[in-house]
């Protein structure tokens, strides 16, 4: 967290933070900003995953991503 974030709170998920991520060219940062924006848009938030459940959650996430890809391909759309 940067000094400006700690003094003003979380950044809104639009405008400069997203464009700054694009300009940075840092793929991991871009993915993190995209994920944060999705969470804000869709109001999805989970508790941290316990160490003994990480594999189960990773497998479930892979299944979810696969289902999303199938639906995207079937409808002819993608993000």
Give the helix level as a range of percent.
55-70%
Evaluate the radius of gyration.
16 Å
Q: Regions with pLDDT < 50 over 5+ consecutive residues? A: 1-6
The end-to-end distance, rounded to whole angstroms, is 28 Å
Portion in beta strands: under 5%
Helical stretch count? 4
Order of helices and strands: HHHH
Can you tag this structure with a few keywords?
79 residues; mainly alpha; 67% helix; 0% strand
Question: How would you briefly describe this protein structure?
Answer:
This protein is mostly helical.
Question: How would you describe this structure to a colleague?
Answer:
The protein has 79 residues and is mainly alpha-helical. It has four helices and no strands. The chain has helices at 3-8, 16-24, 27-42, 54-75. Helix 2 (16-24) runs antiparallel to helix 3. The longest helix has 22 residues, at 54-75. It is extended and about 35 Å long. Residues 1-6 have low confidence and may be disordered.
Topology of this protein?
Elements: H1 3-8, H2 16-24, H3 27-42, H4 54-75
